[in-house]
Amino acid sequence: MQDLQDILDEAVHLKNVPGISMSLRSDTDHILLQSGYTSARTKRPVSSNDRFQVGSLTKMFVAAAILKLKDEGSVDLDQKVLDFVHLPNLHPTLTIRHLLTHRSGLKDYISMEHEGKALVSYGLQDYYLPPTLLIKTAADGSPNQEPGAPFNYSNTNFIILGMIIEEITGQSVSDVLDALFIHPLELENTSLPKQAIPLSTHGHSRLTDDLMEETSERKELSFYNPSIPWTAGAMVSTPDEINKWLYSLMNGELLEDESLKEMMSFSYTGDETEKYGLGLAQFEFYDGTNAVGHHGGIQGYESLALYFPNEHACLTILINQMPSGVGIIAKNIYKTLFSKKEAQS
């Protein structure tokens, strides 16, 4: 346990990360550790219940919600997007599966501009932008989109999936996620906020507001506008609650077996170390080990949630700074924990 705490403390003291929180959950272990502060300004220590922005870990929840609706007979993955979302410039052959696998041909709205500013920069302002605007901006900027195109990670895909969930259910995505996962699993600190909410864990960023350049200055962020990342990345949670959800998913408690199998039907992305399924990635993690999960990065926060099939264990790390090197920290934790267990056995 001390070895793991030393890894977190090193990230805080030597890598200048403000705060970090981790959870590991397996059949035999349940470890919660933290280091550093919720705010570089106030120096309040991070606790296990402090909520972080989790960024694109949101995509796992949204993809699982779509598959849950499929299990209930409300949707087919090969249905056309235009059956649900009636917006101009979306290709008539675009399907839900194309969105889930990032093969829609649509550009990522995050880096595109609205009224002369990158859309992602509006996340730091109290300025609501509807999902239709985000999608239209991306669709207008993708005139030669071709569904079934090579893998191209695009947040636009999961904004459209959010609209599809609302069209099918007649409810907000926030309420759907609450009903499907959050309330049944008693995830008290997890939500998809409908509006900006105060977080006990402040974000810290060394990037410009458009996320394009790293600067020498570190800004502290106490506000984030969830309408910008929405169903592509606006959820808040704790490491232990992310792990509880991921562990339940991998144990077959949330989806039918066939849907979980589809979610984990991984194909190449162009990166030799990563494949992608339906809202889940498979990483060549360490020393030939494969892990399943997702990485997240949003202004002021970085996250990584992983399931290790061989060890039947989940590891989630949340950090209140972007960039922070969360992948290196995760590998050090894995090596320390599981290499030691192998040596003991």
Automatic annotation (TrEMBL):
Q: Where is the Beta-lactamase-related domain?
A: 5-325
Q: Coiled-coil region(s) at which residues?
A: none
Which Pfam families does its entry note? Beta-lactamase (PF00144)
Keyword Secreted in annotation: no
Keywords in UniProt for this one?
A: Carboxypeptidase, Hydrolase, Protease
UniProt key word Isomerase: no
Name this protein carries in UniProt: D-alanyl-D-alanine carboxypeptidase
Q: Which organism is it from?
A: Halobacillus aidingensis
